[in-house]
Amino acid sequence: MIPLSLGEIAAVVDGRVEGDDSVTVTAPAVLDGRHAEPGGLFVAWAGEHADGHDYAVQAGRAGAVAVLGSRPTALPTVVVQDTEAALQSLAAHVVARLRGGLTVVGVTGSRGKTSTKDLLAAVLSSAAPTIATAGSLNNELGVPLTMLRAGADTRFLILGMGVRHIGDIAGLTGLVAPDVGVVLNVGQAHLGHLGSREAIAQAKGELVQGLAPGGTAVLGADDPRVVAMRSLTDRPVLTFGRAEHADVRVLDVVLDRPARPSFTLRTAAARAPVTLPLVGEHQALNAAAATAAGLAAGVALDAAAAALPTVSLSKWRLQLRDLPCGATLLDDSFNADPDSARAALDALAAFEGGRRIAVLGEMLELGDGSEAAHRAIGEYAARRADVVVAVGSRPLADGAGERAVAPADNAAAVEWLRGRITAGDVVLVKASRGARLDEVAAALVSGPPDVLTDRPRNDR
User: Checking CA distances to 388, which of 45, 243, 253, 271 falls within 20 to 30 Å?
Assistant: First the structure.
């Protein structure tokens, strides 16, 4: 965050200052006051169940020096009519001031965008100071929060851009037009909101349409709907994938026992070997996407290939963890759709030795085809795993047939698993965020039975 006085912030967001307008914000903005940093800005909302303004004192104790909100608080406050719009305006202002020395990269796709964002962060940070989206904060709030983390020394800003409706990404590129826009794929995630893959492609294509002058589109060469996005821009295009015509091509993928891929990345001018510390063959494609984006941003192929193995993935994305009983946990509990579920099951199948146990929960936002999609994944899981634990989903269990067990909820799944997992087994945990199978993973690692709660089930 570049230093800004409250008076300056108020002028940018069309607000008024309640308190000392000379107070200067020097640290990032946060929505949770507990996470405020010294010199930071606490963004307060009056929600349905809680009023963030009531937590200003807590934010102050954590280090916040001011609040952006819709009414005065105990801290100096910039008062605005629309807090979300004010946050976005402030973020756009900050990045505009930095833009001369800043390259902005937007990343979207139905699956793999968080892993690709993490891989790209490894590539770009090897060249210059880089800020990237934390976890999956990729919506109308998360993107401006990430933008506000950029400072005078930041040279690369990576923004994950999620979508639930037509116009979502256009709104984000309206805040900041990316210099590089990466579209990975068009899958089934968000069918419940958008209705068809064609509509999902339209929504993802907004990133290509929103590029900055002189920007570059980085497109997945293996997905015809993504390749077709060439027609949406007159900007340069780089492609990645397994396809023969890909500008950054993935060749010769092999997996070790924990299903970590080694492969070659080839361009027209060079090639480079890569071995990733990540699980799953699909990560090679994510690495190719990150490399292509790196090339567009000025990072050479050999430098990108050397940086990729230093990646640190966001949590709950095919994380390998050892269980006390000697089994291995493959924790992919953050999110799921049919395509990512198949990729995770392929990773599970690559393990050798003990039993392969797939713990699967609901995949949300699939629309009218949800039941059929769950049954199909159950069938696929039965071919890739020895046991399929279908948590709270009858269609998953039906699809898996004789290999399935069907605990009613997370607590029942933990009870069943704890009595049966043995040394050498590999346990995959995979579901949409709303299923909260991260609770199952946590309980298997070390948590007592009461780690499972009756928290409400949120959307993905």
Answer: 253
Largest CA distance in the chain: 69
Which ranges of 55-196 does DSSP label H, i.e. alpha helix?
A: 56-62, 83-98, 113-125, 142-147, 168-175, 191-194
pLDDT of residue 190: 66
Amino acid 441 reads A
Closest-CA residue to 431 (of 372, 348, 374, 347):
374
pLDDT at 197 (0 to 100): 87
Helices (H), 280-369: 283-296, 301-307, 338-349
Round to whole Å and give the CA distance between 335 and 431.
6
- Asked if residues 210 and 173 have their Cβ atoms less than 8 Å apart, the reply is yes
Beta strands 328-332 and 426-430, pairing class = parallel
Strand 261-266 versus strand 271-275 pairing type: antiparallel
- Cβ 274 vs Cβ 222: under 8 Å: no
The per-residue pLDDT for 353 is 76
10-residue stretch averages of pLDDT, the chain, 460 residues long: 96 97 96 95 91 96 97 97 97 96 95 92 98 88 96 97 93 97 86 82 96 97 97 97 97 90 97 94 96 98 98 82 90 87 91 90 88 95 96 95 95 92 93 90 70 37
Contact 13, 86 (CB under 8 A): yes
CA 68 to chain centre: 26
| CB-CB neighbours of 394 under 10 Å | 14
Show Cβ contacts of residue 49 under 8 Å, excluding neighbours closer than 6 positions.
none
Measured between alpha carbons, how far is 91 from 140 in angstroms, rounded to an integer? 11
* C-alpha to C-alpha distance for 198 and 242, rounded to whole angstroms: 23
For 427, residues 6+ apart whose C-beta sits below 8 A from its C-beta are: 323, 327, 328, 329, 330, 357, 359, 417, 421, 444
C-alpha distances in angstroms, 290 versus 237, 248, 296, 389, 421?
Answer: 14, 10, 10, 34, 37
**CA dist list (Å): 401 to 332, 383, 405, 420:** 23, 11, 9, 19
Nearest to 330 by CA among 435, 446, 431, 429: 429
Q: With the C-alpha atoms ordered 140, 142, 145, 146, is the resulting torsion angle positive or negative?
A: negative
